[in-house]
Amino acid sequence: MFKSLAQLFPVNTDKLEKNKDIDALKNILFTYKDDSKRIKAAYALGRISGENYCEAAENVLAEFARDVANSEHLRVHCIRSLESQKTPSTEVILIEFLKDPLESIKSEAIRALSEFKSIEVACAVVETLSDSSPKVLDAFSDFLSNVSPQIASSLREALINENEAARAKACKDLNLAKSREVIEFLSKLLAGGSDEIRKRAAFALGSIDSDRVLGPLTMSLEREKGDNLVAVYTAIGRIKTDKTVDIFLKGLEDSNPDVRSACLYILCEKKSDKATPKLLSVLSNENVDMDYRLATLKALSKTQNATVLKTMIDNLQTASEPFRTKIEEAIVDMGHPNTADLLQPLLKSEDDKNRLSCIKIITKLKRPGTANSLFPLLKDPSSDVRKILIIGLGAFTEPEVAEALMDIALDKSCGGQIRGLAIRSIGTIAHASSIYNLFELLKDDDEYVRGSAAFALGNFSKPDVIDVLGGAINDSSELVRSMVVEALGQIKDPKTLEYLKKTKDDPSEKVRAVTARVLRNM
Length: 522
Fold this sequence. Notes:
This protein is mostly helical. It has 33 helices and no strands.
């Protein structure tokens, strides 16, 4: 009865606050009907200071805020008042409210926690963002302070979104902003979040092109291991500075092969001369794990360093077959302008494998003017060397290459197979000066030569070529007639149809089958 009557009289919450009368304020909060008085009591409790009093006031506010029977509006005001206390337990209590199903409670708890700068708070807030509403994101923006809602949203995407492309786009937004608050927040996550959050925080920090992110990332190298350590090294590698070369050189000594590989690629991307000697020593060390050497090779191929190229060529001479092929590919990928010149001594090697490697590299690079250095090998004692060279020369377009190949094609002492390969490469080059020699080769005694000449002429779309090929459809060789049909089909001129109609009834089943296929594709 007394309590009900007391509620009819004015309440001086300022006086109750000054007298630290926590019980009276609790009574107003829990029993009064007037929301305005209860809110005043909540704020009065939040302002009470002094040893033993703060904790007692906080307990009252927490008790009211936890009770779901109380109105959402008043619970929010109690959480707002809790922000003012800052006892050792305040942070723990506020983190508890981040799990509340009501968005208003959750949002207010996030805002209240902006006064607390611990790693635990940062990690707890991120967990809240996994299924956040616009209201919660607004609170997150306030939590970070001085950060726009758009940046807060981008930060959430970078940390929570499962789509890698979406995370990468969000990180670009973070880089544009270069917010100190965002960097500090990510640094806390890097120090204490879950494994996945730490990886994503590292990625996001590495996306921000600022020296400020280098400190927290470098410190985390001492704490991390496994995939997370790789993620941190990768993040540091994305920062555009040469200050990190020593960090990656140290990473090359790590026991984790994934870490070593990551550091290798990063060092080569940075193209630091300081790292080159270390990388080359790995490449040339036959006692090093082959996967590690392959990773080193692939990374070095991204440089344009002449010393690197020379070392690759040196390794080429002693490498086993699988590694030799990888070195050839790496030299081609490097595409150094002096490659052909540096390979010249190796072209004179007595080892067939070395000469073959030079041929493969130079013909794949297809640099104008480099084919001439290979012409002497057209008379190489090794038939394998000659075959690979003749096929490779078809990648060039210079008329002198076609002339050199034509000399082989016309030389009956070279044998039908070698001559046929030369003719096919001539067809690939398709230089106009070759046409009339190919006409003559259609009359050669060797059917493989005649068939190759027919096939090569398919690359020349000229009326007289069509007529000459048409005259060859009566060749005695099934092989030659098949190649004539293939060539006519390759030219794709309506005039070829009158000749292809004749081969539909060819006595050879093979020729008829080729004709049917060619006609379907025309």
